[in-house]
Amino acid sequence: MLVGVGIGPGDAELLTLKAVKILGQSAKVYVPGKLAAKLIKPYAASEILTFPMTYNQETLEKHWEENARIIASQARDKLVSFAVIGDPNFFSTFTHLRRIISKQYPEIAIITVPGVSAITSFAARANTQIDHSFEVTDGSENKSKIVLKAVKPRKIAKELEKEGYNEFIYLENLFAEKEHISTVLPEKGSYFSMILARKP
Ligand SMILES: C[S@@+](CC[C@H](N)C(=O)[O-])C[C@H]1O[C@@H](n2cnc3c(N)ncnc32)[C@H](O)[C@@H]1O
């Protein structure tokens, strides 16, 4: 099994208990650079895999494929972690690895452990608060929207369809008892819910 582990924004005390546990249980831990290796040093030894900083798609694919091969050779019969700065599902090297491993080595189960992301943790350091809608961008086209407090899921989706959104996931009580995740939107939602909307 392969686990993409988020290790937080840069402070070894901002790893979650779950991240520390999984890293400790892993037969092998890979990281995409020195910073991640240093950050997890108190909890696990790691091996650095090289991911070049380039926009050359061919070079990138070559390294992703080679690293996917190295990881897959271990993850077939062992618990293997790939530890990344922040959260492994937000603008992460892990997304590319996951895409290649799922396609070329479908026998390997893949899960992720969320990490404290720069996208939320910056507020603590900037000494600021966000309590209104905001945008996160890396300059690419905006194709996702997260709606908080999704108490009227179907009504929300109907409104979003007018903006071109056509894929919806309703998520309630995440990581807790009575967690409920569905693409079938209920008429009424709970306060502890959100909708992820996507457009093509
Ligand atoms: C490839 S993204 C990785 C994001 C990461 N997966 C996360 O969830 O935080 C890298 C970008 O995230 C931001 N970033 C990540 N960690 C940061 C930190 N400790 N301080 C400031 N910005 C950070 C920077 O904009 C950086 O260029």
UniProtKB/TrEMBL annotation:
<keyword id="KW-0169">Cobalamin biosynthesis</keyword>
<dbReference type="GO" id="GO:0009236">
    <property type="term" value="P:cobalamin biosynthetic process"/>
</dbReference>
<dbReference type="GO" id="GO:0043781">
    <property type="term" value="F:cobalt-factor II C20-methyltransferase activity"/>
</dbReference>
<dbReference type="InterPro" id="IPR014777">
    <property type="entry name" value="4pyrrole_Mease_sub1"/>
</dbReference>
<comment type="pathway">
    <text>Cofactor biosynthesis; adenosylcobalamin biosynthesis.</text>
</comment>
<comment type="similarity">
    <text>Belongs to the precorrin methyltransferase family.</text>
</comment>
<keyword id="KW-0489">Methyltransferase</keyword>
<dbReference type="InterPro" id="IPR000878">
    <property type="entry name" value="4pyrrol_Mease"/>
</dbReference>
<protein>
    <submittedName>
        <fullName>Precorrin-2/cobalt-factor-2 C20-methyltransferase</fullName>
        <ecNumber>2.1.1.130</ecNumber>
        <ecNumber>2.1.1.151</ecNumber>
    </submittedName>
</protein>
<dbReference type="GO" id="GO:0030788">
    <property type="term" value="F:precorrin-2 C20-methyltransferase activity"/>
</dbReference>
<dbReference type="InterPro" id="IPR035996">
    <property type="entry name" value="4pyrrol_Methylase_sf"/>
</dbReference>
<dbReference type="GO" id="GO:0032259">
    <property type="term" value="P:methylation"/>
</dbReference>
<keyword id="KW-0808">Transferase</keyword>
<dbReference type="Pfam" id="PF00590">
    <property type="entry name" value="TP_methylase"/>
</dbReference>
<dbReference type="InterPro" id="IPR012382">
    <property type="entry name" value="CobI/CbiL"/>
</dbReference>
<feature type="domain" description="Tetrapyrrole methylase">
    <location>
        <begin position="1"/>
        <end position="140"/>
    </location>
</feature>
